[in-house]
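Narrative summary of target 7.
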Amino acid sequence: METTIKPTKRKVIDIPEDIFRYLSIKAAASGTNLKNYIENLLAKEVEEMDDSETYAYLSKTRPEGHVMVSDEEKQKFEEWLGVKGK
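Modeled conformation, tokenized:
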């Protein structure tokens, strides 16, 4: 059995007391702890994102993304993503 370890990032966030209490109750009702519950909420949010909306936003706010990259930059990016170029 192979186990894939995904890299993660840590972020400390402040949650208002009433929201913390509400999320803790929702987590307990779901049979999990608060940390896992919030991680699952975030993962679900990302899965449901509309790519065209994200692209439109980035095109408007980060136009440097429209500049073509060199073959070397492309190769490094693909290596970073863990994909092979065509």
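Residues 17-81 form one domain.
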